[in-house]
Design a protein that fits this description.
mainly alpha; 55% helix
């Protein structure tokens, strides 16, 4: 798996995932808050399957 998510987007995904999980754990939102696991995982890994299928890449690569 090649990284296809940039650093800023990774950070946003991780924070959003943690917020959703935290809200679900405290009962502020319903069960759907546990879906925060998805952005948390994709942010931690740096690879997003839908991005790979659609050919999207927000990760900057160095030119050699």
């Amino acid at each position: 798996m090649k990284t296809n998510i940039g650093n800023i987007e990774r950070g946003v995904r991780i924070v959003a995932g943690l917020v959703l999980i935290g809200l679900a754990a405290t009962g502020t939102v319903g069960w759907w808050g546990w879906l925060g696991v998805v952005p948390l995982a994709t942010g931690a890994i740096g690879w997003c399957p839908p991005y790979a299928l659609l050919g999207i890449n927000t990760c900057k690569t160095r030119s050699s």
